[in-house]
Design a protein that fits this description.
- The chain is built from five helices and 27 strands.
- The protein is α+β, with helices and mostly antiparallel strands and about 500 residues long.
- It folds into two domains: about 280 residues, no CATH class; about 190 residues, Immunoglobulin-like (Sandwich).
- The strands form nine sheets. Strands 10-6-11-13-12 form a five-stranded mixed beta sheet, with helices on one face. Strands 18-24-23-20-21 form a five-stranded mixed beta sheet, with no helix packed on it. The protein has a four-stranded antiparallel beta sheet with strand order 17-19-22-27, with no helix packed on it.
- α2 packs across α3.
- The N terminus and C terminus are likely disordered.
Length: about 500
């Protein structure tokens, strides 16, 4: 009996990947590779127990190479599907970026690639990178480049994308035992993202479990797991990318409605597959779904448009006042992202939930530059900004009002002129060993009633006046910026 993604050919079984000479610090693409000590038998058993407890606690099941909510798995008793799913797919396509992380990272529980968070991770761990050569890594990358070339998907691997660009991530290293899974699992997705509605999934390709010379197989495994996070399920046919067992050779996306293969358990996202193949078909058309989700590959030279609607540029307020920021952000392709930045206070907040309204409460005296920066998957960038004055007068002007930011027209830009902050995310990136989480605003979060609450994704308890992760605090240390997200949108931003 085969297990999902268990290699049955001896030439593919786990052997050490090509390693650097003893004593040398491993690097890939000019950056250090995270390494971890092998687990002891006791540590491995404890992680297995912790993983099983996590599944039971959340009512999740491991179905082959997927960890899913039990109720979402078609074919399992008690499975439920949305009653309002359309008969045919009616969403606009969106652009996407996949970051192939060969360098490793410090991971924790959650669901956000930019924050190194995965539902697969029950407790913080240092996760290792790829232990092969750069040439082997490039061969794995080639699988992604070849198979995703027809679609509006960009790849990154040398450098992590900026946090405000929505991107998925595949961890290209390690073994299943590190996450508490059994030997024989060669990759895993813990995402139930039907139709690729959420754009920040994190999946795993356990490259440490296979002979590194089998780069085509490793690349297929990694792309297979990424595709589960798109919402694709297992189908029949060893020639297909979504076949549930690892075998050598070239793989293709199935271009017609192809029968499910539920040999490893139930099927995810049946209701979306029915939108392409018909009710009750129990089939999936991988090519049709990928084209619907991502669209045709084409060059995108148009940057997003950003227009800060409120506050007005030059607004004067008394010390301790509050102000609401409203912004309109658009682009010619869906999938873009943005963030709120207060550059002269070293504060930024990524709009992970597509927020377009923020309240800045009880502002200390000072000058505030309020900027919103946007980016698309071609790395076209733009921004709009206004300046307000709290407890002080605006500087005298000469009457020349020809500035290009803060007006009703907003601003657009390109790579040569935009200023969008650091390229690296504000959390610890691959190879980093720091524990700080600099992703948002060093503030208290509030609700509309004024009660303290935690921001989406924070690890503090509801009802606490906890500090959200931030790039910096107010200079005085005595004031806090109470940030209220008033317009948190669903996972994907609907086109206006």
């Amino acid at each position: 009996m085969k297990s999902t993604f268990v290699v049955v050919l001896g030439s593919l079984l786990a052997l050490p990947l090509s390693a650097n000479a003893a004593g040398e610090s491993a690097q890939l693409f000019g950056r250090p590779v995270t390494t971890v000590a092998p687990l002891t038998a006791a540590e491995e058993a404890q992680r297995r127990a912790d993983f099983e407890a996590m599944l039971e606690r959340n009512d999740w099941v491991m179905v082959g190479d997927q960890v899913l909510p039990r109720e979402s798995v078609y074919g399992l008793a008690g499975a439920q599907e949305p009653s309002d799913a359309p008969a045919a797919w009616d969403e606009a396509p969106h652009r996407a970026t996949i970051f192939l992380n060969f360098n490793g990272a410090s991971l924790s529980s959650g669901n956000n690639a930019a924050l190194n968070k995965s539902p697969c991770v029950d407790a913080p761990i240092d996760y290792p990178g790829f232990t092969g050569t750069e040439q082997q890594a490039l061969a794995l990358i080639n699988v992604f480049e070849t198979k995703m070339e027809p679609y509006g998907v960009r790849l990154a691997y040398e450098k992590r994308p900026p946090a405000h660009l929505p991107y998925a991530m595949v961890m290209m290293g390690g073994t299943p035992q590190l996450l508490g899974m059994q030997q024989g699992v060669l990759g895993v997705s813990c995402s139930n993202d039907c139709g690729d509605q959420y754009w920040r999934d994190l999946t795993f390709a356990f490259t440490g479990a296979l002979n590194g010379n089998n780069t085509e197989t490793l690349g297929n495994i990694a792309l297979h797991e990424a595709a589960h996070a798109f919402g694709l399920a297992h189908i029949a046919g060893p020639e297909h990318m979504m076949y549930p067992f690892a075998n050598p050779g070239n793989k293709e996306w199935a271009s017609g409605c192809t029968a499910y293969d539920d040999s490893t358990g139930g099927i995810n996202c049946n209701y979306t597959h029915e939108q392409f193949c018909g009710d009750g078909a129990e089939q999936q058309n991988s090519v049709a779904e990928l084209m619907a989700y991502f669209g045709t590959n084409s060059v995108d030279t148009v940057p997003p448009t950003v227009n800060i609607l409120e506050p007005a540029d030059g607004l004067e307020l008394s010390a301790g006042s509050s102000v609401q920021v409203k912004v309109d952000v658009s682009d010619d392709h869906e999938g873009f992202g943005w963030k709120l930045v207060l550059p002269n206070h070293d504060i930024e907040l990524v709009a992970y939930d597509f927020e377009t309204t923020w309240d800045l409460n009880k502002l200390p005296a000072g000058e505030y530059i309020i900027r919103v920066e946007a980016i698309d998957h071609e790395r076209n960038e733009s921004f709009d900004e206004v300046t307000i004055y709290v407890g002080e007068d605006a500087p005298a002007t000469t009457g020349d009002d020809s500035g290009t930011t803060g007006d009703d027209s907003g601003t657009t830009g390109d790579d040569s002129s935009a200023t969008t902050g650091p390229d690296e995310p504000t959390t610890a990136g691959p190879g980093d060993d720091d524990d700080d989480d600099d992703s948002g605003v060093g503030t208290d979060a509030g609700t509309e009633s004024g009660d303290a609450a935690c921001l989406e994704g924070d690890e503090c308890d509801k009802g606490c006046g906890c500090s959200s992760p931030g790039r910096g605090e107010w200079p005085s240390g005595a004031w806090a910026l109470a940030l209220l997200i008033l317009a948190a949108r669903p996972r994907r931003r609907a086109r206006a």
